[in-house]
Amino acid sequence: MKDTTITATMKKRELVIFLLCFAAAYTLNVIGIIKNDAPARELVTQLHLVLLIAFILYGAVIILRVLYYLISRLWIRKK
Amino acid sequence: METDRRDFIRTFSALAAAGVFSARMPWLSGLYAQEALRKVKLGMIGVGSRGSLLLTLLQEVPGVEITCFCDDYEPNFDRAQQMIGAGATGYTDYRKMLDQEQIDGVVIATPLDLHARMTIDALDAGLHVFCEKAMAKTYEECDLMLQAHRRNNKILYIGHQRLFSARTLKGIKEIERGSIGDVTQIRAYWHRNNDWRRPVPSPELERRINWRLYREYSCGLMTELASHHLQVANWILRENPDYVWGSGSINHWKDGREVYDNVNLVYHYPSGTHVVYDSLISNKKYGMQIEVQGPLGTIELETAYIFKEFPEPAPGILQLLNNIEKQVFDVVPVGGPTWVPEDPSEDRGTYLLERIIKSDGTDIQMASFVSDVRNNRLDPWLTEQGYSSGIATLMGYESMLSNRIVTWPEGLSL
User: Fold this and answer.
1) Coil, strand, or helix at residue B93?
2) Judgement on whether residues B282 and B364 belong to the same structural domain of the protein
3) Do B305 and B169 share a structural domain?
4) Dihedral pair phi/psi, residue B59, rounded to 5°
5) Among A2, B77, B92, B368, which is least packed, fewest CB within 10 Å?
6) Chain B residue numbers touching A49 (CB-CB < 8 A)
7) Is residue A3 domain-resident?
8) How many domains would you assign to chain A?
9) Between A and B, how many CB-CB pairs are < 8 A?
């Protein structure tokens, strides 16, 4: 079995993707508060939900990236 | 078990002292100072199934000595002797016991028709009395008991343990806080599915053992079950019913019994509130409950749950996600129905207490009685609760028997 190397660039890329997911989830929270006339304190009190949604989005992005990777490998082999 | 109960009584007392229950429940204050113990000497009159339970609970209260007991049914007598031990004197005539024993009070757990004369005799003998519910079998007997209590200035407890149940006390505090708004209706029911019979060793003992089934001794479901819920209703509404109409029948257990096996009543109170009550012993799907209803919510007292009519909305983000989900997955109707069923409110309810409490209040009530006897502390309101519940119970029974509306009787002491 080969050793796996996680480079600093890779770490940085994953962190940026997760932060983007968190920002998207937080935007959802803001829209939810405005559209449903919810109290502004939910910007802070619902952070646990925001975090959960951020992880779900991050998971979805991982699945999409894995699919993209597998399809592109198949494409290269066929060529 | 014994230690658990003592701990529970101690915890309950501490909660009461801390004001977890309502401030308007002064009868709980008697429990606070259980530690300065002077021995309280009590006698038991009637040690059948309920009586022996009360005896067990009393034996677990610190500082109580059961010095004598009375029962004229041999198996009960023998069991009581075994439970208490040789130190207690047994009698078959309660009058002899009252004459010969030096005791502070008695606990009466006999058939309903005997409550009045035993209680009055004991009060007149200068003793404090705990008498099982319902108070008595007639209006006049209830009144005579109340007069004897006042005349002798002695404690008279009627066995309505919900006055000491943590679930009821917390529920009533929520009602007083206005959590459900004004009380607009109380719906109470008590459903069982059994014949309510006790095994009889020989036929001549039938009426004596199954006294609950015969009108000579009992008013059936009304005095044995409904009296509890009517006491709570009177307590919540802080008034007594001005009239009642009801109907009862024997439609399932046609085995020679004389009392109804199903009863349905509507009590009207001066404030305009109704208590809708029913009880039957041929179906137990709904069990028992007291539902106190108001414009803002419902409190179920037997289980200590509150159900809000307008629950707090979900957080904005969840509402947003739900809306997105609905827009994506819901079927779009092309035309609406002309009639839809009235859906109940969606709140699943919130438990009112910090922890699950199984006690129905009987253990606390016995501890409170002992404490009040020790301190010679009278609470007339407590006795009046038993009295007004007793009268309301008998009004319902009379209404069913006579098939007419019955009003609160005139000329009573309360």
Assistant:
1) coil
2) no
3) yes
4) -65, -20
5) A2
6) 315, 317-318
7) no
8) 1
9) 40
Output the pLDDT for position B15. 73
Which residue range forms the structural domain that includes residue B263? Answer: 165-311+348-357+391-407
Q: B322 to chain A: which residues are within 8 Å by CB?
A: none
Does B320 map to a domain?
Answer: no
Name the residue type at position B41.
K
* Cross-chain residue pair B316–A36, CB shorter than 8 Å: yes
Is residue B334 a part of any domain in this protein?
no
Q: Please count the CA atoms within 13 angstroms of the CA of B248 that sit on its side-chain side.
A: 28
pLDDT digits (tens, 9 = 90+) for B154-205: 999 999 999 999 999 999 999 999 999 999 999 999 999 999 999 999 999 9
Identify whether the C-beta of residue B215 lies closer than 8 Å to the C-beta of residue B253. no
Evaluate whether residue A21 is within a structural domain.
yes
Do A35 and B316 count as a contact with CB atoms less than 8 A apart?
yes
Tell me the pLDDT tens digit for each residue of B355-391: 888 899 999 999 999 999 999 999 999 999 999 999 9
Q: Which domain holds residue A53?
A: 8-78
Residue A34: CB atoms within 10 Å:
12
In chain B, the residue whose alpha carbon lies closest to the alpha carbon of A41 is B315
> Does a structural domain hold residue A2?
no
**Residue pLDDT, tens place only, B386-408:** 999 999 999 999 999 999 999 99
Query: Are B371 and B255 part of one and the same domain?
Result: no
Please tell me whether residues B114 and B6 are part of one structural domain: yes
> Residues B34, B56: one domain?
yes
Cβ distance B315 to A28 less than 8 Å, yes or no, reads no
Tokens 């509404």, residue located: B237
Predicted confidence band at B135 (pLDDT cuts at 50, 70, 90)? very high
Give the mean pLDDT of A43-63.
96
**Test mutation, A31, A36, A50, chain B, max B CBs within 10 A:** A36
Nearest CB to B315; choose among A31, A34, A46: A46
Q: What is the mean pLDDT of chain A?
A: 94
Q: Do A32 and B321 touch (CB under 8 A)?
A: yes
Chain B residues close to A31, C-beta within 8 Å: 320
Q: Sheet of B156-158: strands edge to edge?
A: B89-91, B64-70, B40-45, B105-108, B128-131, B156-158
Kindly list the residues from chain A whose CB atom is less than 8 angstroms away from the CB atom of residue B315: 32, 38, 42, 45-46, 49
Which run of H or of E encompasses B157?
strand B156-158
Place of tokens 């529920």: B171
For the stretch B2-43, pLDDT in tens is: 456 666 776 777 777 666 676 556 666 666 555 567 899 999
